[in-house]
Amino acid sequence: MAASPSEYELTLQIIQSLKEGKKRGFQEIMDELQPYDMAQQYQHLPAKHRNKFLLYLNIAQLKEMMKELNKEDQLEVLQKLGIEKSTKVLDLMENDDLTTLLSDLEPEQIEELLSEMKQEESDMVQHMMNYPPETAGRLMNNRFVWISKHYTVREAVDKLKDFAELAEYLNYLYVIDEEKKLVGVVSYKDLLLGEMQDKIEDIMFTRVVKVDVHTDQEEVAKMISRYDFISIPVIEGDDKLMGVITVDDIIDVVIQEANEDIEKLSASGKAIDFNTKPFVAAYRRLPWLILLLLIGLVSGSIIDGFSDTLQSAVALAFFMPMIAGMTGNTGTQSLAVVVRGLVSQDLDIKQVMKLIFRELWVGIIIGLSCAFLISIIAFIWQGSFTLGVVVGSSLLITLIIGTLAGTIIPLVLYKFNIDPAVASGPLITTINDIFSLLVYFGIASIFISKLS
Amino acid sequence: MAASPSEYELTLQIIQSLKEGKKRGFQEIMDELQPYDMAQQYQHLPAKHRNKFLLYLNIAQLKEMMKELNKEDQLEVLQKLGIEKSTKVLDLMENDDLTTLLSDLEPEQIEELLSEMKQEESDMVQHMMNYPPETAGRLMNNRFVWISKHYTVREAVDKLKDFAELAEYLNYLYVIDEEKKLVGVVSYKDLLLGEMQDKIEDIMFTRVVKVDVHTDQEEVAKMISRYDFISIPVIEGDDKLMGVITVDDIIDVVIQEANEDIEKLSASGKAIDFNTKPFVAAYRRLPWLILLLLIGLVSGSIIDGFSDTLQSAVALAFFMPMIAGMTGNTGTQSLAVVVRGLVSQDLDIKQVMKLIFRELWVGIIIGLSCAFLISIIAFIWQGSFTLGVVVGSSLLITLIIGTLAGTIIPLVLYKFNIDPAVASGPLITTINDIFSLLVYFGIASIFISKLS
């Protein structure tokens, strides 16, 4: 908030200092900026000033700014910095940021960058990139403080001081044994409140909540938000401490996962944002649309099958879009409730049955209300009591079917470990179209004698 | 992860210790549990053991567990604890958790609870409840450490130690002047690395990123995730420090906001989760459905208007659901892209125009592809070239309209500070139904002579 008003004049000051070559003045401005603000400034800067801007930043600042830039700018910066300076920056960057940066690059580019880096750093990054995407192994970083269980509080505090610069957050110290196995955790508070000569193994908290390198990032997010942790340790095999995942990365995960749910629910295709090019966006959206188009034709052939019924009572066509639409809408509603419910809750069979019966009831209540309303409208509008009955009863049945379809389909997918959100709103809608037309014309043909 | 396997046997151990009245053994188990796990255990516990469970917990543990319980259980616990013990717990609870707990209660219940609490605590809570919901004022807590700018590093460290127990996170100390105005921030790292006799005002970071008590929680979440903060200070009026918002609360906000977007996008009505009762859920979903039902009838009357056209060429009806459906689907896709895009990005007019043109292009590309496909299908299926042209050209036009409607409607709402997500998928779908039918039958009537 407070940062934003002065943003524009800041840009002016920066350009000023760059033009006049006042490195000192430039540094004074930077000292007061958050990494995100630096990145904003860099991105707003006219191209001609960018090189000098980078030249004036020190390595630490460059590293901080890097992780706030989007991928394109990150690569631009690396390339402008030249191989020597850029590897210094990469060495400093957190491994998780580095992994994300590299993950989309060509193998040879990755090779080139890593080859220049400190052996230990590049090993860690290469190791992390072997874990599947969206797992804990990809999110973890090694900027944390570990201590041996044999330490005293004093030794722990000293080590904490030495590593303060490097560690991302100081809230917890993770305790390991001789084989680097995670055996406990000590909060910084415990150190403050403990006696200097206390042994760590006596004051440490041994029931450590941890995740495995292969744990899905959505699961990790669930745990961090449940336990209100700042960071959570990541282990591999039998409790070997590999790294930590920090809450700032988890926030990004939560946003990303929510976006993915919405992308799928709306069948809008993966990763389309404001900057996606038209052809790319269209290309990503088309597969779904073509599938839906073909399914949509099924409804067509159903109507084709009932064309005599329709011919003899064209009024039936008036209510077709409404019935189909309503069935789709109620299905979408149920779907959304299920998909989002699964984000914060794990389901056992008991809850599943409870949920299905709940939705059945919802379908019945909604169905009765809407059916009652529409049959009166149909009667008044078309003056045919029979039509009212046909439309009303059809709507009642289709709404119940629609609600259940919207509930059961995602639950079945979930059961088979398929992301329930792939049962997108449009898909449910299109499937429900078919149900509704079958029911509608089925009922209509029964009463056809009275309708025509 | 590691915590979960033993959960069941834990429950058994707990019941054991409760039955045998082994308070010591019970405490040993609790000492190792996270608040969330305690809450889980309490909820899984057979009703008959719950009273003793609460009796055996000390105030601190009760307070920790409380904030992890859902509202119903929280009230059950308070009531079981009795007014004296429960007020002790409330006094300890973080104000933000307290505010959330109270916000849904009846005024007299709130009155009763607050009246028993420490004056200072209850004042703070009452003050917070005056801020509008979903603002920073409702989220902030007062469990933070503030220091005067005149302190030395040593004085700051001492104060930090005294308050370690109370403060939620120790990462930052907020610096205030004589009038309690926020003038700077010092990270705990700075203290570790500074000299003991350094003056705080010399080492503090003066360009503090802060939010106002009235800032929308979504905005707060945006800032915390941008700056990777653990907490952000909340000010009122001219920089008076009121409290801090911590990252753990922000994760809940991010999840909540995402759910709200999906609820609206799917018109599934506010706050329906797995535990909502059928009638409540139905009641919350009905308003939208009835509105959509009425709009749906408009499509009906359009068809009514074109009934002669339809009568003379029933084949037109076959493609009706597909065309209407496709227009709705593409609209939903565009809508989702816009709504989620706005979560992470602020838009200026330049980007808006860029976005609209992008979607226009997407519409054209998608339209041409689908139109080409469908006209061939229509021709083969119905053997009428004219029908192919009619269906194809209609689909082309409606898909372009649908895409633009799905883009422009939410943007207009956003411009007028209405949450763009209220333009729900179902609404866009239903509106697009109407467009598509007008276009479809409009074009059809031009060619009617050739169709029938």
From TrEMBL, chains A, B:
Compartment(s) of residence: Cell membrane; Membrane
Pfam family of the protein (one): MgtE
Signal peptide span: none
Principal localisation: membrane
Entries under Gene3D superfamilies matching the protein: CBS-domain (3.10.580.10), MgtE N-terminal domain-like (1.25.60.10), SLC41 divalent cation transporters, integral membrane domain (1.10.357.20)
InterPro entries: CBS_dom (IPR000644), CBS_dom_sf (IPR046342), Mg_transptr_MgtE_intracell_dom (IPR006668), MgtE_N_sf (IPR038076), MgtE_transporter (IPR006669), SLC41_membr_dom (IPR006667), SLC41_membr_dom_sf (IPR036739)
Recorded topology in the membrane: Multi-pass membrane protein
Transmembrane spans: 286-303, 315-339, 360-381, 387-414, 426-448
Residue ranges occupied by any CBS domain in the UniProt entry: 140-203, 204-262
Keywords: CBS domain, Cell membrane, Magnesium, Membrane, Metal-binding, Transmembrane, Transmembrane helix, Transport
Keyword Transmembrane in annotation: yes
Subunit structure: Homodimer.
UniProt function note: Acts as a magnesium transporter.
NCBIfam families from the UniProt entry: mgtE
Protein's name according to its UniProt entry: Magnesium transporter MgtE
Organism per entry: Rossellomorea oryzaecorticis
